[in-house]
Amino acid sequence: MGTTLSRWRRRLLLLACGSYWTALTLVLLGPPVVAGWRVTRPDGGHGVINASLSGTTLSIAMSSSHTAPWSGSIGLWTLAFWIAGPPIVLWLALRGIQQRDSMTPLRTMHR
Description:
59% helix, 3-stranded antiparallel sheet, single chain, 2 helices, alpha+beta
């Protein structure tokens, strides 16, 4: 039973992390990808995409003559937290549950 529960927890962790990273990618990268696609469309307009790394801040700006400008910036530490923070917390929680379950004494039924 312990092996099955351990596999289930690993699957839960991988599924949860994969779902989290997919949602994070859609939320964080969705708007810049759409803006970049609009800026680079060949319909007669001229577009500009700038990216810069200043200290620990990543900044991206996009603009064109036929679309509204888009810009965004994020600190590298903030980005690292968003990528790794919640999966690490979930892993620690599952690890704590696993240790608690392994420390629980087995109860046997007496007839």
